[in-house]
Specification:
The chain folds into 2 domains: about 5-240, no CATH class; about 245-330, OB fold (Dihydrolipoamide Acetyltransferase, E2P). It contains 11 helices and 12 strands. It has helices at about 10-20, 55-80, 90-95, 110-120, 130-145, 145-160, 165-175, 180-195, 195-220, 235-240, 295-305; strands at about 5, 35, 40-45, 100, 105-110, 225, 230, 245-260, 270-275, 280-285, 310-320, 320-330. The strands form 3 sheets. It has a 5-stranded antiparallel sheet with strand order 4-5-3-6-7. A 5-stranded antiparallel sheet has the order 10-9-8-11-12. The protein has a two-stranded parallel ribbon with strand order 1-2. α1 (about 10-20) runs parallel beside α8 (about 180-195). The radius of gyration is 21 Å and the shape is globular.
């Protein structure tokens, strides 16, 4: 018996999640298979499209989605988002296909198959209940009806708080997305996902990164209809307007744990640190030239030993909110008491 979600409304997805959570069993055969139906897909329609091939901006968005699926599988398998822990066969199982039709004006990315494959990777690494909740939540937050509209509306609310320019505020107020009561349901799904441990946190990052990539692609397209929500290039560009609030970079000495170093892509080296004192996670990207010598050895040693290491970080904050973190160097102290 499989868990079935034939109706792709946020309410149906949430009902399925709540049904799973109400099951007293942590492991059950029904948790090993899900049937999501045709709704579980990213559907993009470009009504003004006249190209003979897929737009590069949307190709980048689908590549980002694929990267996020690989990272989720890596976290499920090894506890780290470093995809070097996945074999070529495992990556092939999780590959996402994009069907392009109608003279390249329609893109269809089926999520049902790769999400089922991802579920099978999670089973045994975590409880079946937790794995199903994570997969259903991802499907709901990326593909359920109105989910992209809710994401856009939430992005609009953030921008209205951040942007003080009268012109920007007027432009934002003119943007309307029909979300109704669905926003509350999407929020409930997100809150459930947050409670699913490290894999839940990674899943939220995956959803956000995918939606951000789709919005970025829409900003390079005259008009796009993404999962039923129409957005123009101008609207997408307004929603992606960078804030101009004053930022401050403050050098600080912190004791951190190195939980992952991803060197798979030499153009996108990443290291993930956890603040020993606050448990805050810092994801840092940098060029290979900055990742050499004694610091390189100390960071890898800290990753292997799973022991805290003292570092000097440059933390950029905007009105008390951390926006970026740079690793300046490792140091022998002083650290927090």
């Amino acid at each position: 018996m499989a868990i079935q979600v034939r109706d792709g409304s946020p309410e149906s997805v949430l009902a399925a999640i709540q049904s799973v959570l109400a099951n007293p069993e942590a492991f059950s055969q029904e948790f090993e298979r899900i049937e999501l139906g045709e709704w579980a897909a990213i559907k993009v329609h470009l009504p003004l499209e006249q190209m003979s091939s897929i737009r590069p901006a949307f190709m980048e968005a689908f590549i980002e989605l694929q990267r996020q699926v690989y990272q989720l599988a890596a976290v499920a398998k090894t506890g780290s988002p470093n995809t070097t822990g996945l074999s070529d066969g495992e990556k092939e199982d999780l590959q996402i296909s994009v069907v392009v039709t109608d003279g390249s004006s329609n893109y269809l990315t089926d999520l049902a198959v790769p999400l089922q494959k991802l579920l099978s990777k999670m089973i045994g690494k975590m409880t079946g209940k937790q794995a199903v909740v994570v997969i259903l939540s991802i499907a709901g937050l990326i593909a359920a009806s109105h989910s992209f509209a809710v994401y856009l509306d939430h992005t609009k609310e953030i921008k209205e708080e951040e942007l003080k320019s009268k012109d920007h505020l007027e432009a934002l107020s003119a943007i309307k997305f029909s979300v109704g009561e669905h926003a509350k349901t999407i929020h409930e799904i997100t809150e459930v996902l947050k409670t699913q441990g490290e894999i839940g946190k990674q899943a939220i990052e995956a959803v956000t990164a995918t939606n951000d990539a789709l919005l970025k692609a829409a900003a390079h397209t005259p008009t796009a209809v993404i999962n039923g929500t129409e957005i123009t290039r101008q609207e997408a560009q307004i929603l992606r307007t960078p804030t101009r609030r004053r930022s401050e970079s403050v050098p600080v000495i912190k004791q951190v744990k190195v939980i992952d170093i991803n060197t798979e892509d030499i153009f996108d080296l990443q290291i993930i640190l956890v603040d020993v004192e606050t448990d805050a996670h810092y994801r840092i990207r940098f060029k290979d030239s900055l990742f050499a010598g004694a610091d390189r050895h100390k960071l890898f040693q800290a990753l292997e030993d799973r022991k805290p290491i003292c570092t000097e970080l440059s933390i950029k904050e905007v009105e008390g909110e951390i926006r970026s973190v740079d690793l300046l160097r490792t140091t022998d102290g002083p650290g927090p008491d």
